[in-house]
Design a protein that fits this description.
Oligomer: heterodimer
Order of helices and strands of chain B: HHHHHHHHHHHEEHHH
Largest interface: A-B, 88 and 90 residues
Radius of gyration of chain B: 20 Å
Helix content of chain B: over 70%
Structural class of chain B: mainly alpha
Strand content of chain A: under 5%
Number of helices of chain B: 14
Shape of chain B: globular
Number of helices of chain A: 15
Largest sheet of chain A: 2 strands, antiparallel
Order of helices and strands of chain A: HHHHHEEHHHHHEEEEHHHEEHH
Helix content of chain A: 55-70%
């Protein structure tokens, strides 16, 4: 008996699988940003609290730790789902290339262990570990975030720039070299781009929360401190990102010409290729948009003479959906530029601020509003960037070697699991937001309060503990 | 022992660790479900929070460990297992998401009413998840997963051995968790609670033992290769597991909670290892041997290196965590 009685076309099943993967990844990636970057921010506060005897900083570190318990839990389970989906959705990828590119996943397992262990120790260590030791338990969590990002991005970069194996004409894989697969040509820029993105996303999102608080009139030192620490990380990241992103884009002309063609809406192969701002591709022609001559070539190869391959030289069945990729790419760039602007504004306000306690930075309602917007922009840029690289690689799952439709499961009924997933992930997002808001509301009344864990009707039950 | 065998052993270590540590986590959720209303269940639920709060994420990584080992060392077997057993894996995934999410949400909910709702989700998915994991194990062990993954998406995991596997999994983790919770409660100075949980441990131990006897009959009829292995190579482990189970019951009666936990771990560990030894050298019973499924040699060597790296980094950290949570201060209230 088939899973579903409603027959779907193979292409529809493929799309359902791709949507499910996109949803799972797009969801997990925000949470993993927190896993990578939040510990460093907590560390800064915690360290300040200890070294300068700053009770407010220490209290903030404790709150952020509790918030991370919720975020990391959702991150851990949504990450596990991804490991399931590698097999549930893409068995063709894993059974063919599992031993080529599986190793970094195993390495990431170590990072996951270390992170989970030290997170447990950190969260429950308040008042139980010596303060200095307790603070230091954050360091392995940061390192695990760095190493984990490296491993996962090694896999993704390998899908873009496959290396470390030979594929015979009959499809057999030989000469497997897992080290060469890890250190593929796309690794370093992709890894750095994502690692820095984690700080940008986490920093701007956390700062946005405090900006909202300040807009509502809560301008105490705790809010200012929370904003400043998070925003500083994000602002530095936002400034570094275009440089790293540019390096990531270099060599795309030879590594993945069809992705570059889609990003730039290149219809014809040419040097001095233009950048098109806006515009859509209709029937092979670019409509609308503003052309800036020769810049695409310059960006792709640091020279006006760089030849960018256009769709006229790419087989029709190897073209990615150009408009999606183009718009996603430009959205990322636009959001990035806006974030740099907001970061600059912050820096400028700090320089001009003459107030003794630094509160003058936050006197502008418009700046605070912009800081809230930056939180949204960061997530937008993250998702748009991933859409660019993932949709831009289509129809390949392993660029030039395996097509996505060759990798997808033979099982039907993926749309059912997709629907369930949409439902569950949506409700998890809503609940997580509710829980985090409830935590914040409770802390405003009593900074140290939690719900008594008995989950009973209070009173005499509170005594059995938190 | 060949390199492929060695990789399989390392992978199976993860299965054993997950069965014990993940098992104790899941089982705690089962007791949470049976703890009664908010008032009556308060003490037990507090203990469950205290016991698994710091460790559940780490315990859970073992499953990911097994999956990545499987797809890296034995890629085709991974593809086959995930394709044929699509439905139960999906349900396991669902259970894991709901369980982890709800557990974290419960602790920080806005109100007791919401916390109760999250508690129900957490506890019921703690039953569902090990059940389907057990069904998956049963499907592989009874030879229902073809090497090319072309097994029927429904009947492959609904044979007698799968039902046995699912049921035994839920009972075993409940038994195991009760011994963990009793030992933790004792350590925290909550002697009455330890005694209450200890009684449940005895009850669930007896039920689990009885179910295991029935399971043996089912396996005898339904899973020939596995049964053969259990009679021969695996016999010592099966008998050892049964003995350790009996010893646990005696220790529980004598209220030696810490020792009882240890022997319960031995009982569960022995039967899981017994399963592995019994189906050796099949990876997918009757379908694919470890040797046939093995991936490229350099990758297997790489995996061994990664394992060693994990042994010197993650394992000491893990041990430190378990040492900490077993200290009195960690079973007490934070000040």
């Amino acid at each position: 008996m088939p899973v579903t009685t409603i027959p779907l076309l193979a292409t529809e099943e493929l799309m359902a699988a791709r949507y499910q993967m996109a949803l799972s990844l797009g969801y997990h990636i925000i949470l993993s940003c927190f896993g990578v970057a939040f510990p460093a921010m907590i560390y800064v506060l915690h360290r300040r609290g200890l070294r300068h005897d700053d009770a407010e900083a220490l209290a903030l570190a404790k709150k952020w730790g509790k918030a991370s318990a919720v975020l990391f839990a959702v991150g851990a389970v949504s990450g596990t789902i991804l490991s399931f989906e590698m097999g549930l959705l893409w068995p063709g990828l894993m059974s063919t290339y599992g031993d080529v590119i599986g190793l970094p996943f195993a390495m990431e397992g170590i990072a996951f262990f270390v992170e989970a262990v030290f997170l447990g120790i950190y969260l429950y260590g308040w008042g139980r570990l010596r303060p200095e030791v307790h603070l230091r338990t954050l360091i392995p969590i940061m390192l695990a975030g760095l190493f984990g990002t490296f491993c996962i991005l090694a896999v993704n970069a390998w899908m873009n720039a496959p290396a470390g194996f030979t594929q015979l004409p009959d499809g057999t894989i030989t000469d497997v070299d897992p080290i060469a697969a890890i250190f593929n040509d796309a690794l370093w820029p992709q890894f750095l781009h994502m690692w820095v993105a984690a700080y940008v996303v986490t920093g701007f999102l956390v700062a946005a929360v405090y900006a909202v608080g300040m807009l509502r009139g809560r301008r105490d030192r705790s809010h200012r401190l929370g904003f400043t620490v998070a925003f500083a990380f994000a602002a530095i990241g936002a400034l570094a990102q275009p440089v790293i992103g540019h390096v990531a884009g270099l060599r795309l002309d030879t590594q993945q010409p069809s992705k570059l063609a889609a990003m730039e809406l290149a219809t014809e192969t040419e040097d001095r290729a233009p950048v098109v701002l806006g515009g859509v591709l209709v029937d092979g022609e670019v409509r609308g948009g503003i052309e800036i001559p020769a810049i695409a070539s310059l960006l792709a190869g640091n020279s006006f003479d760089t030849v960018i391959v256009g769709f006229d030289d790419i087989p029709d069945d190897e073209e990615p959906p150009a408009n999606v990729v183009h718009w996603a790419f430009q959205t990322m760039i636009g959001a990035g530029v806006a974030m740099i602007g907001i970061s600059g504004w912050w820096w400028w306000r700090r320089r001009r601020d003459r107030s003794p306690d630094g509160s003058g930075v936050f006197d502008s309602v418009w700046f605070l509003r912009a800081a809230v917007v930056a939180g949204g922009l960061a997530v937008l840029a993250l998702e748009a960037g991933w859409t660019t690289t993932e949709v831009g690689r289509q129809p390949w799952i392993v660029y030039g070697y395996q097509r996505t439709d060759e990798a997808v499961t033979s099982n039907s009924g993926i749309w059912i699991s997709l629907a369930v997933m949409v439902l569950i992930y949506a409700s998890m997002a809503v609940i997580a937001a509710r829980v985090l808001r409830a935590m914040a509301a409770r802390w405003r009344e009593d900074p140290d309060s939690d719900l008594p864990t008995p989950y009973g009707p209070g009173g005499e039950l509170v005594e059995v503990g938190r | 022992m060949s390199l492929a065998d060695f990789a399989a052993v390392l992978m199976f270590l993860g299965v054993v660790a997950y069965a014990i540590l993940g098992g104790a986590d899941f089982g705690s959720g089962v007791w949470d479900l049976l703890a009664g209303d908010a008032r009556r269940g308060a003490h037990l639920r507090s203990q469950i929070d205290r016991s698994i709060g710091p460790v559940w994420e780490a315990n859970h990584v073992w499953l990911v460990y097994v999956l990545v080992f499987l797809w890296t060392a034995f890629p085709t077997a991974f593809g086959a297992i995930m394709t044929t057993l699509f439905v139960p894996w999906l349900l396991v995934g669902l259970g894991i998401v709901l369980r982890g999410g709800a557990f974290a949400f419960r602790k920080f909910s806005g109100s007791v009413r919401e916390a109760r709702l999250h508690g129900i989700v957490f506890a019921s998915s703690s039953v569902v998840t090990p059940f389907f994991l057990g069904m998956i194990a049963g499907a592989i062990a009874s030879g229902r997963v073809p090497a090319d993954g072309s097994g029927d998406v429904w009947t492959s995991w609904t044979g007698p051995t799968s039902w046995v596997g699912g049921t035994l999994a839920v009972l075993t983790v409940s038994f195991l968790a009760a011994t963990f919770l009793a030992a933790d409660a004792e350590r925290g100075g909550r002697h009455d609670l330890a005694a209450t949980i200890g009684t449940r441990a005895v009850g669930s131990g007896i039920v689990t033992g009885a179910a295991a006897l029935l399971a043996a009959v089912a396996i005898e009829i339904d899973a020939e290769t596995l049964a053969d292995g259990l009679h021969t190579r695996g016999l010592v482990l099966v008998v050892g597991s049964a003995l350790a189970g009996l010893v646990t019951l005696v220790l529980l009666r004598r209220r030696q909670w810490a020792l009882a936990r240890l022997s319960a771990v031995v009982a569960v560990g022995a039967i899981v290892v017994g399963w592995g030894v019994a189906q050796y050298d099949w990876l997918l019973v009757d379908e694919l041997t470890i040797e046939q499924a093995a991936g490229a040699r350099p990758t297997l060597i790489g995996l061994v290196i990664v394992f060693v790296a994990a042994a010197v980094t993650a394992v000491p950290a893990l041990i430190w965590l378990f040492v900490l949570v077993n200290q009195e201060a960690w079973q007490d209230e934070p000040h």
